[in-house]
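Check the record.
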Amino acid sequence: MKKTILYIYFCVFSSITITNFAAINNSQTSPDAYASLDGNEEALISRMLGNPINFEINAHNETGELIVPPCYQQNRFCTIFQALHEKIDQTYARPSLSHFQSNKEFIKRNPDGSASKYISFTGGDITQWTSHLMVAKQNQEGKFSAIRTIAINTPRDVNPLIDESDLWHPCGMDICGNYLAIPLQPYKIQQLNPGIYRGDRLRVVFFDISNPENPQRIADPAHPARFYVLDLMDAAGGTITCPAIAFTRLINNRYIIACQYGYFVSRGQNIDSGFDFAGNINFTNTTGFAPKDVGEFQNLSFVTLSGQLYLIGTGTTSKLAPVILGENIANLYKLNLNVINPGQAFDIAPGNITAEFVTQISYGKECCISPDCDFSAASNITSQCSMLSMYNWVWNKNHIPCCCFGAI
């Protein structure tokens, strides 16, 4: 398979800087856009490629308490059978499916001008049918330790009005400002626990992370006893299922959420105002990894570069990953939006948009601490446009191995 590997000198890094906001198609995004950059495409690509840095997240907090649930320690042998869809004993099948699924780095600006850095990451525990959001914080020495784990989905025995018992599997999440959006899906529920299966669906849940050490799910203003959610549906009312979303906000303070199969725009300026399906995303691709062909993107991120909105998708070229590893890749696309009144207080007109292929970057597996590190789940773009990966099928109950292609 032909690889596209770009070698760009380190000096290019100096040509790209973080800005407060940038324009999209001659219009501006909100300061809440996750990554807004000045520079050219080559500078953006050089940040994505970066130099590999290995580090670990301590699964315990500073007092020694185990914060990351031990279910996420994987058994490679069991995973092979699960991935090949063999008929095996349930005692082997169930724990083999629990794994880290997504991550996102978050920088909290403190009142004194300093900054605190966090890594939020998710996992699904099929032994308890529970999806988890875990948070790690960087200390003054630059090391990360887990500080909090909370359950994401609400089972029916806790609150029958919500009943997310089947949504144990979190997908590729994204951050916009102080909001974290996490897609949840009922992966393998029908086969392993048909009693709680409610059909294939994808639900996006939202957390307020203004206090990143204590994320809070956002309540539904119309139903105070429930949480606000977005169930992804297309224009015909059909369910959309995809393993990743991208999330940002426009200058008119309306939010946009994109997945591999379409995009949604908020009705108002509040996160809980509701979203409408706006159109499909048509990818142009000339590489070995074509969306809807070889596989699906496991994580997506918006990046605004000198007035143009881009979309970055990560994944692997192997259909049998993580059993048979393929190339770890990140695809960069330029989005052509349907902009109304460019240069003014603009909006996006509904309709299909094109994601124009720019390049594909291939990442070597030998750079990671664990040989099982791959992009078939938790790899994502940071606020500095480095590539962070922590999808490892084996860890030692004490530290979670990670790899960042660029500074973290």
